[in-house]
């Protein structure tokens, strides 16, 4: 159990760090974004700005929470003493960022358990900054899900709620694809069965933004295989606190499958993707 005041403070820090890194990647985006490296395939790129954003987050977290662990998409791995780990994606939607498509995010979450082992961890506070829309969506366990402007005049937060759509045939479903050719071929095969059964599909290009869209009800559901902890940690909590459910093949989202939706759609969407 985390003390309620400590949880409020963790949520505040998630918002502050995600917003600062979000403003940084947006405002400092070079005309030509330089690719620094590739990971699982030649299209799975790391830009110089992914690294700089992770360095910024790392410094902010170490200064404020020296006893906590850190797990970052671009390699940050610090084991902590507090039982809490910060799971960060310094730019989620890197390909959009590379091409200047305004749909990328910074995702910052605090989790309990071991985020490197699927099913063994869960988020307790988190924030997803969407610097192109100038908003940050955030939540803490038990505190509801909220959005607020994160630039210009500071506005009041407004509460998020998932869509109440209950018919698959009317559902707008967000999804995404991995970077490896074999994985993508399998994902395309699954979508052959999915597409005729839903209103339409959206491939926004950032799983963190897909999840917060489920939370705000601007898509009805999201499903993707192959997600990592940093893609989903903050968005998972924001969806649950907005009244939705996030599951995998079992109760927890996992690399094999992550499904997020309102209570009426989550099982039908899970069945669509598992065939069971
Ligand atoms: C990717 C995005 C994308 C999703 C991929 C992720 P990255 O993260 O979230 O929408 O489909 O599975 O890897 O590489 O932009 O941080």
Task: Explain what this protein looks like in three dimensions.
The structure is a single chain. The protein is built from seven helices and 15 strands. With 276 residues, the protein is of the alpha+beta class. The radius of gyration is 17 Å and the shape is globular. The protein has an eight-stranded mixed beta sheet with strand order 4-3-5-6-7-8-9-10. Helix content is 34%, strand content 26%. Strand 9 and strand 10 (158-159) form a beta hairpin. Helix 1 (4-27) packs antiparallel against helix 2 and helix 5 (207-216) runs parallel beside helix 6 (229-241). The model has no long low-confidence stretch (mean pLDDT 95).
Keywords:
globular, binds D-MYO-inositol-1-phosphate, 7 helices, single chain, 276 residues, 15 strands, alpha+beta, 8-stranded mixed beta sheet
List the helices and strands and how they pair.
Blueprint: H1 4-27, E1 35-38, E2 45-47, H2 48-64, E3 69-72, E4 77-78, E5 84-92, H3 94-99, E6 105-113, E7 121-130, E8 135-140, E9 145-149, E10 158-159, E11 172-175, H4 181-194, E12 200-202, H5 207-216, E13 221-224, H6 229-241, E14 245-247, E15 258-261, H7 266-274
Helix pairs in contact: 1-2, 5-6
The structure holds D-MYO-inositol-1-phosphate.
Residues 73, 89, 92-94, 176-178, 205-207, 224, 226-227, 231 line the site of D-MYO-inositol-1-phosphate (IPD).
